TrEMBL record:
Protein name: Sugar ABC transporter permease
Keywords: Cell membrane, Membrane, Transmembrane, Transmembrane helix, Transport
Family: Belongs to the binding-protein-dependent transport system permease family.
GO biological process, one term: transmembrane transport
UniProt domain ABC transmembrane type-1: residue ranges: 70-284
Keyword Iron belongs to the record: no
Native organism: Bosea caraganae
Amino acid sequence: MPGSPSALLYVFLALPILYLIGFVGFPIAYNLMMSVQEVNLGNITEFIRPFVGLDNYRTVLADESFQKVLVNTLLFVGCNVVAQVGIGLGVALFFAQDFPGAGFMRGLLLCSWMLPALVVGALWKWIFATEYGVANYVLSALHLVGSPIHWLSDPTVALTSVTLANIWFGMPFSMILIAAALTAIPKEHYEAASLDGAGSAARFWYITLPALKPALLAVACLVTIYTMRAFDLIFAMTQGGPLDASNVLPLLSYQFSFKQFDFGVGSAMGSFAFLIVFGVALLYVRTLKQETAS
């Protein structure tokens, strides 16, 4: 009957479903449709365009820049996942200790994560500047380098530079999630282990790490998803250069679409990135289900 709780429930369910269809489902479907069409500036406003099948995907796979950027993306994501989760775990364990100012310092660390990625990219671009950057100044002052390092213009160093910047940017997110998981571990386990003579290393290995395993896997999945979306930070620092040394899939898709105006090939590249993120998202959902069931 109208106005009944069951009818109201359907209304509340319909709103998020319509949102997902309109703002998530349609863009994904439209991108997939463009990836099998020939789309350029002449027909971008049209809905019906020449169908080319898998030609755009073949062009992507045969493109040397795509092969290089795919390797860059895997390295960039892999290093970020390992570093952000590992450093985040260490920092979370550090702030779990009872000492004055722990809460304030943890909140201060989160401020970096709240900054816009473009601002963080501009900040690290200044830090890594060859002539007046802080990084080269500190290294020179410590007599660790004899000449300035070209952090952003040297193809052998550029990917490392943007990776370090993104690790600094994303690590507080991992830290706060791991810190929340730490609070769920019963203190009685640590007290019992201490009475049995277990040291801090043994308590970490046999109590903390097994209890955090589902959370660490979930955090790793989230970091993978967020890192696969990295665009603005790299764009602000290097724009993918030099010579695609720091380029990643989202940025390469943008370059093909809005610099070369080959929207079909750009959409195909975006589809590859989407498949990777979708696979990781499925793993994340599965991890959440296992964690809820346990």
